Amino acid sequence: FETFVYGFIFGFWGLYVNLRQNLALLCGCILVGIVIPIAIFHCSLNAAFLIALCMIVGIFQVFGSFWVLGINFNGYSLVPLVLSIAIVVQHSIFVLHSFHWPCE
User: Fold this and answer.
1) Neighbours of 76 (CB within 10 A)
2) SS (H, E, C) the chain
3) Which end of the chain is more exposed for a tag (fewer CB within 10 A), N or C?
4) pTM of the model
């Protein structure tokens, strides 16, 4: 006995099929999209490496807090994860601009 999903709900269900792979792809794209402009505009691979390291540590901290609090990984918990990545990157770039001047 086979069941097929159809209708407008199928579009929403299809988003959750490969959630972990899509998140890994999204984080990789964000990492590359942040590191390359920082390396180019600040003329420093060290600055780009520090931003990438802060982003990776922030992702691990959020996943660790999910595990400690017993929160399941689904579409609803993905929203705070993406927002936390944005906050980590923004704060790291502010700190970078405070201590590192771009090439002149």
Assistant:
1) 9
2) CCCCCCCHHHHHHHHCCCHHHHHHHHHHHHHHHHHHHHHHHCCCHHHHHHHHHHHHHHHHHHHHHHHHHCCCCCHHHHHHHHHHHHHHHHHHHHHHHHHCCCCC
3) N
4) 0.71
Which one, of 74, 88, 85, 24, lies nearest residue 66 by Cα? 74
pLDDT higher than threshold 60 for residue 15 = yes
Six token digits for residue 63:
């996943």
**Structure tokens, 70:** 């017993």
Q: What gap in Å lies between CA 16 and CA 12, rounded to an integer?
A: 7
Give the pLDDT score at 46.
86
Q: What is the pLDDT of residue 104?
A: 56
- 99/80 Cα distance (integer angstroms): 29
15-45 in b/e form (b: 16+ CB < 10 A) is: eeeeeeeeeeeebeebbeebbeebbeebebe
Tokens coding 35:
């590191």
Kindly state the tokens that stand for 94. Answer: 């502010």
